[in-house]
């Protein structure tokens, strides 16, 4: 249950600037899993891991009615790792990374204006291209050993390590209202690089968009985004289809990542199936083709979520990732899975976890 508290109590250091808005919502997710994982040539490991079903977070959000159908709002969310008490890093320029392990507001940090026109956000936020990798178009999303991130995220190449496959900093983000089943999301972000040297002045600049349509049981969405880097631009594109058929939700997701002259392309077929009012089965099969980088691979992932209440759930996931040829780039999701050392080897992970929210 969301808890309404005075801003002065929630974030006292900011209370002087928000007296007109007397309350905020404090919210969060705590999710821990017991993981057992193995990788070819690298043995196995047992660990307590975060984020097996949903990303851990601690956040504050609020709105103020401005009249005339307009509202102002803010949203602050930090990544937390309850297994160690550490936080999550961020990227201030969409190029480098920093503050790893610190409690930053890196999950989302935005101010907004709402109205009949939709919503305009300023700050750090999800990129439009990331949305299709979540349960919006993938049955498991980007968490746990079955994470979509394993084969749908980019591979660094030619000196470029993309930082905008999930979020972008220094962004202007527009989300339209839904009209006739259609909605859109457009984002522009800057890396805030100096004008000299000229070769790197555009590094970290991002432009992306997502268009979605839903009608009855069918949802279709497509997104693309490009980030400029002197070492090789990064382009992320994907298309998702979801169809509700009774208690089953059927998924298809195509995704492509171009980093410089390299490319990886993934295709996924997936399913969510409600087996009881409290339980749901999830599964996905993904194949990846690589050009000029890494290797081809495939992933099988299955999971089960049992809701103990509206806020709390038990879950379990199992995943196997196979590297093709002599490759060893890809592993099952989860930060505790060992790297594959055997060429053409595989990795697997099994986890049981508990998620609760407030």
Task: Give the SSE map.
Blueprint: E1 3-6, H1 7-10, E2 23-39, E3 44-50, E4 57-67, E5 70-78, E6 80-81, E7 86-87, E8 108-115, E9 118-126, H2 149-152, E10 167-175, E11 182-189, E12 206-215, E13 218-227, E14 234-245, E15 248-259, E16 262-274, E17 279-291, E18 297-307, E19 312-323, E20 346-357
Antiparallel strand pairs: 1-2, 2-3, 2-4, 2-20, 4-5, 5-8, 6-7, 8-9, 9-10, 10-11, 11-12, 12-13, 13-14, 14-15, 15-16, 16-17, 17-18, 18-19, 19-20
Q: Stretches where pLDDT falls below 50 for ≥5 residues?
A: 1-21
Q: Report the average pLDDT across residues.
A: 93
The spatial strand order of the largest sheet comes to 2-4-5-8-9-10-11-12-13-14-15-16-17-18-19-20
Q: What structural class should be given to the helix and strand makeup?
A: mainly beta
The end-to-end distance, rounded to whole angstroms, is 5 Å
The portion of residues forming beta strands comes to: over 45%
* Radius of gyration of CA atoms, rounded to a whole number: 21 Å
What is the H/E order? EHEEEEEEEEHEEEEEEEEEEE
* Strands, count: 20
Tertiary shape: globular
- Give the biggest sheet: 16 strands, antiparallel, barrel
Number of helices in the DSSP assignment: 2
Helix content bin: under 10%
Can you give a write-up of this model?
The protein is mainly beta. 2% of the residues lie in helices and 53% in strands. The protein has two helices and 20 strands. It has a 16-stranded antiparallel beta barrel. Strands 6-7 form a two-stranded antiparallel ribbon. A hairpin with a 2-residue loop joins strand 12 and strand 13 (218-227). The longest helix has 4 residues, at 7-10. The radius of gyration is 21 Å and the shape is globular. It starts with a strand and ends with a strand. The relative contact order is 0.17.
């Amino acid at each position: 249950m969301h808890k309404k508290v005075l801003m002065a109590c929630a974030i006292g250091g900011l209370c002087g600037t928000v007296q007109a808005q007397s309350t905020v919502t404090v919210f969060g997710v705590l999710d821990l899993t017991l993981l057992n994982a193995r990788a070819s040539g690298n043995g196995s490991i047992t660990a307590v891991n975060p984020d097996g079903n949903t990303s851990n977070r601690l956040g504050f959000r609020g709105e103020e009615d401005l009249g005339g159908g307009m509202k102002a709002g803010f949203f602050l969310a930090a990544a937390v790792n309850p297994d160690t008490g550490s936080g999550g890093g961020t990227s201030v320029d969409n190029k480098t990374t920093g503050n790893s392990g610190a409690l930053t507001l890196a999950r989302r940090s935005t101010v907004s204006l709402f109205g009949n026109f939709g919503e305009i956000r300023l700050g750090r936020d999800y990129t439009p291209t990331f949305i299709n990798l979540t349960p919006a178009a993938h049955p498991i999303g980007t968490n746990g050993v079955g994470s979509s991130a394993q084969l749908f995220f980019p591979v660094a190449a030619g000196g470029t390590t993309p930082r905008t496959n999930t979020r972008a900093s220094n962004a202007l983000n527009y989300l339209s209202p839904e009209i006739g089943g259609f909605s859109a999301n457009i984002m522009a972000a800057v890396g805030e690089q100096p004008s000299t040297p000229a070769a790197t002045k555009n590094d970290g600049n991002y432009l992306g968009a997502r268009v979605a349509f839903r009608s009855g049981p069918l949802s279709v969405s497509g997104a693309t985004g490009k980030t400029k880097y002197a070492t090789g631009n990064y382009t992320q594109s994907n298309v998702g289809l979801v169809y509700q058929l009774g208690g089953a939700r059927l998924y298809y997701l195509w995704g492509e990542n171009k980093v410089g002259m390299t490319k990886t392309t993934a295709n996924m077929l997936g399913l969510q199936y409600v087996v009881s009012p409290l339980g749901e089965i999830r599964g996905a099969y993904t194949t990846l083709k690589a050009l000029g980088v890494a290797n081809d691979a495939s992933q099988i992932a299955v999971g089960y979520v049992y809701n103990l209440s509206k806020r709390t759930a038990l879950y379990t996931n199992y995943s196997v990732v196979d590297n093709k040829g002599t490759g060893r780039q890809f592993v099952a999701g989860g930060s505790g899975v060992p790297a594959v050392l055997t060429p053409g080897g595989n990795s697997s992970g099994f986890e049981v976890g508990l998620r609760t929210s407030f």
